[in-house]
Every structure is written in C-alpha cells, then in structure tokens.
Amino acid sequence: MPGHVKKLTGPDPDPSPWLAVSPELKIKNKAKPYDPKKSVWVPNKAEGGYLEGMIESTDGAKVSVNVDGEVKVYKEDQICQINPPKFDCSEDMADLTHLGDACVLWNSVVRYKNELIYTYSGLFCIAIN
C-alpha cells in the first residue's frame, strides 16, 4: 500500500491503480520509435545508468552507436538490446523479451514515473517508493 494511503480499519485498499497500466499509456508507449536490430542500451559513464541509442555500424567487437546525435564506440559486450515499446511499463518483468540490467532498470523507472509503484518479477512483487 502506498505511503500516502493510511489504513485505519477494514480490508487493505485495492493496489491495482499502482499496478495496472492504462490503455492510454499502452498506446503512447507503442508509438515510440524502435528498430529491433539497431535499438540498444549503452552505459552512461557520466551519470550512471544507461542511454538509448541506435547502432550505426559494427566492426568486429566494436560497435558505433548514435546516442543523442553523437556517435560513440562501445565494446560489443557493453551494449544491451532494447525491448519493443509494447513492453514499456510491463506489469511483470518475466514478460520482457530482453532481461538485461538496462531493460529491467528502464522498466522500473518508467513504471515509477507513471506512478505504477508495484511490479511483478515472476512470483515476487517489487514495490518502488
């Protein structure tokens, strides 16, 4: 139960407003540009976390990625594929196509920003406050 909801007596309040994704949000997420072969996550060395980018070219174990209009070179093992936009705000992390650190972090952040503080990870419920 979210911290701002105080339970005085009786049954617990319904948690579904903080779990279920609205149809409007699903439609908005699907409109995001996405290329299944080129969309990747790359590490953000300046602030931590990950940035979204598009692969420009591959040269052996090095990959050139366009991040916010700037092309940077990364090792192949540093990049992680992005899940299709239909998986943004996924209610269950087990449903994600790609389960890399960046994908799980992104899903958690996007759900938190949309006030969806409960997320399942298989059988377990994760609460982000």
Give a description of the structure.
With 129 residues, the protein is an alpha+beta fold. Helices cover 16% and strands 29% of the residues. The chain contains two helices and seven strands, in the order αβββββαββ. It has helices spanning 23-30, 101-113; strands spanning 39-43, 50-59, 62-67, 70-75, 80-81, 118-121, 124-127. The chain has a five-stranded antiparallel sheet with strand order 4-3-2-1-5. Strand 2 and strand 3 form a beta hairpin. The longest helix is centred in the last third of the chain and has 13 residues, at 101-113. The radius of gyration is 17 Å and the shape is elongated. The protein starts with 22 loop residues before the first helix and ends with a strand.
Question: Which assembly state applies to the chains in this document?
Answer: single chain
| Count of DSSP-assigned helices | 2
Helix content: 10-25%
**Total number of strands:** 7
Distance between the termini: 10 Å
Radius of gyration, taken over Cα atoms and rounded to an integer in Å: 17 Å
